[in-house]
Write a structure and sequence with these properties.
Elements (H helix, E strand, L loop, with lengths): L1 E5 L6 E10 L13 E8 L1 E6 L2 E6 L2 E5 L5 E3 L7 E9 L5 E4 L12 E4 L1 E3 L5 H14 L7 H26 L4 H13 L6 H8 L3 H12 L3 H19 L4 H7 L5 H12 L3 H13 L1
Antiparallel strand pairs: 1-9, 1-10, 2-8, 3-6, 3-8, 4-5, 4-7, 6-11
Helix pairs in contact: 1-2, 3-4
């Protein structure tokens, strides 16, 4: 696998983007561009070769085609094919890492893209891509920088997803525990129970909680409360909100229970924490 990275203090230079839709038998033309190309497949499979390396890019997957390297379709698609694409340049060249395993990250980088990969971030990359296309069709954008900023978010999103995936692979936790913890982080602001968590993971609640306790030291309830408390601390320290608002914003059923759990984890009440943080900022 090849990995491309760049440390670029400037925004990427956007050229053009679009959405290809073909009903059957699409073959990508042969070309060697002086711009980079990012393709994200929405439906079907794109058969494409870059610098004599063949790829089959299917739904939810992407490929980065580097400027200056020849690419072409080596096989016709079967059935419908749809993908979004964007052409762009960077102000500095991309560096390359060759590795069969998880690569070592450089000290500094703005983007770090596998040549080919899967977007697993709950369709965030798709949404950002659609946003970019919407901006590109807007005839009265107040600033063309919106296109570069939107593209920048796509590249950063793919980079973040890859970093998160490497952390998951390096973790000693099982995939069930990792996925459960990520689901909790995304849904802890709602009124959820351990049965909701287990159902989302397709596990028995008691089994998943026991597995979670074994690998993390926390039961599902403890981890859920811990995650909620961490969010509430950020709210209390950076916003002028009440204790009641903090409690409900983080998914606690009532203010009294929230105060009890907060003190259990932090050793102080929410108000004591809020006042201490406020005084620290004033001083």
């Amino acid at each position: 696998m090849r990995y491309f990275y760049a440390y670029d203090k400037n925004l990427p230079d956007f050229f053009v983007c679009g959405n290809l839709i073909n009903e059957n038998g699409f073959v990508h033309c042969r070309r060697n561009f002086d711009v980079n190309v990012l393709i994200l497949v929405l439906e079907g499979t794109l058969f494409i070769t870059q610098s004599e390396r063949r790829f089959e890019v299917s739904e939810g997957q992407y490929i980065f085609l580097k400027a200056g390297e020849e690419h072409y379709g080596h096989r016709a698609s079967k059935g419908k094919l749809s993908y979004m694409w964007v052409h762009f340049r960077n102000s500095i060249p991309w560096d390359i890492i060759l590795s069969d395993d998880i690569p070592a990250f450089p000290k500094s980088f703005s983007y770090f893209l596998p040549e080919y990969g899967t977007c697993a971030g709950a369709q965030r990359a798709n949404i950002l891509f659609y946003q970019l296309m919407d901006f590109s069709r807007h005839e009265r954008l107040y600033s063309k920088a919106m296109l570069s900023c939107s593209l920048n978010l796509i590249l950063m999103e793919i980079t973040q997803e890859f970093i998160d995936s490497t952390k998951r692979e390096n973790s000693h936790n099982s995939s069930a525990v990792y996925n459960a913890s990520e689901w909790i982080k995304s849904n802890c602001h709602k009124q959820i129970t351990i049965h909701d968590i287990a159902e989302a993971m397709h596990y028995n609640a008691e089994y998943l909680s026991a597995l979670f306790k074994k690998e993390t030291g926390f039961t599902l309830v403890q981890y859920l409360n811990k995650t909620r408390i961490e969010i509430s601390k950020k709210l209390l320290s950076g916003n002028n909100i009440s204790i009641k608002e903090a409690a409900y914003s983080c998914g606690f059923p009532n203010e009294k229970y929230y105060m009890k759990i907060f003190k259990r984890f932090e050793g102080v009440t929410p108000m004591q924490y809020k006042n201490a943080f406020y005084k620290k900022n004033i001083n």
